[in-house]
Design goal:
Order of helices and strands: HEHEHHEHEHEHEHEHHEHEHEEHHH
Largest sheet: 5 strands, parallel
Number of domains: 2
Number of helices: 15
CATH topology of the largest domain: Rossmann fold
Distance between the termini: 28 Å
Length: about 350
């Protein structure tokens, strides 16, 4: 902490964005966020996969769950996110088959064990989880599995950062870049952001000491008026990343425009199944479409995930929206900014 304070001493006010929801939670849980110097503000970005998933995707998932011949397989955070007509949890309460799984391969196993049902895996997440989905599709293809499908919802991180910076309505002086995504991408992947927008990027892990190290490096760069990529997580992240994982992703998926909650359609920020694997797309199989995005009345999750608003500025926060009765996805996910503020910041607000 002393290194951050020393680097910030005499520097201008600055806003540093931690992109990843896991960073947000770790910064709160460890107390690091509360120890920042007055001129260093940490803001949360669009790095929670569930939070940036559009309502149209959730509605399509619920539509599939309502089918008697379908089992929806999903990671746990998706179950309680409300859509227009309810959540997967409420659908399960009405008899829908919704199974919480821990890996994409579990969905393949589920399809093998239930040959008379169609299994649809909700393929949501950034580059961290995309290789596992690609591997599941390749496994299903190899064994000619006819009842396994995915609902494509994977996101690509860098186009979202470009969209934020291009919009220019959120002051961002530097990025604390996620360690797990960077294991796949490599630290060098952030060079275009640095060169085009002159914003420093520092890759860090999730331990408090490493996050403080990364924040210190960012503060020094901003104070000195320089911008470069620095890798403070060299124990896990290389310059080039995991080439084998990226090849697997590129074999199965192609870049595509996709809808982000409240951010609209961002070019090349999503992934569509390539031709040879398009038969695994649940949309084509079952005739479902992703409808328009939607925010529940009063919910400001869309502003929270873009760093435009702190959760406590939302009128619903801790009043009508809480982890036990969430209105928006930022209060549902374990990586959600609102959930982190509620769990770790409420005591300091005297609630």
């Amino acid at each position: 902490m002393a290194a951050v304070a020393e680097a910030a001493d005499g520097a201008r006010d600055m806003a540093l964005m931690e992109i990843c929801g896991t960073h947000t939670v770790s910064l709160f849980r460890s107390g690091v966020k509360s120890l920042m110097p007055p001129n260093v503000r940490l803001i949360s970005g669009p790095g929670c996969p569930v939070c940036v998933t559009s309502c149209g995707y959730l509605d399509a998932a619920c539509e599939l769950a309502a089918r008697k011949d379908v089992i929806v397989a999903t990671y746990g955070d998706m179950v309680r996110v409300p859509g227009r007509a309810g959540s997967l949890e409420s659908a399960r309460g009405q008899g829908a088959a919704v199974e919480v799984i821990y890996s994409a391969r579990d969905a393949v196993k589920l399809a093998r064990e239930n040959p008379s049902r169609n299994v649809v895996f909700l393929a949501v997440g950034f580059e961290t989880t995309t290789p596992a989905t690609a591997a599941a599709v390749l496994e299903a293809e190899a064994v000619a599995l006819e009842n396994f499908f995915i609902l494509p919802g994977h996101k690509v991180l860098l186009p979202a950062l470009e969209a934020l910076l291009s919009a220019g309505d959120v002051p961002i002086d530097g990025f604390l870049c996620p360690g797990h995504v960077s294991v796949i991408l490599g630290a060098a992947a952030y060079e275009p952001i640095v060169k085009k927008y002159r914003r420093p990027c520092v890759v860090v892990g999730f331990e408090p000491a490493n996050m403080l190290e990364g924040i210190g490096l960012l503060v020094r760069q901003v104070a000195a008026g320089v911008a470069k990529v620095e890798n403070a997580y060299g124990v896990a992240v290389s310059e080039g990343g995991n080439a084998a994982a990226r090849r697997m992703i590129e074999q199965v998926f192609a870049p595509a425009a996709t809808e982000w909650r409240a951010m609209g359609s961002i070019p090349a920020s999503g992934l569509a199944l390539r031709g040879p694997y398009s038969r695994f797309d649940a949309r084509a199989k079952f005739g479902v479409e992703f409808g328009p995005d939607y925010e529940p009345p009063g919910c400001r999750c869309g502003e929270v995930i873009q760093g435009k608003l702190e959760p406590t500025k939302c009128a619903l926060f801790a009043v009508k929206c809480s982890p036990t009765a969430p209105v928006g996805p930022c209060m549902v996910s374990s990586e959600g900014t609102c959930a982190a503020w509620y769990k770790y910041n409420l005591p300091r607000q005297g609630r």
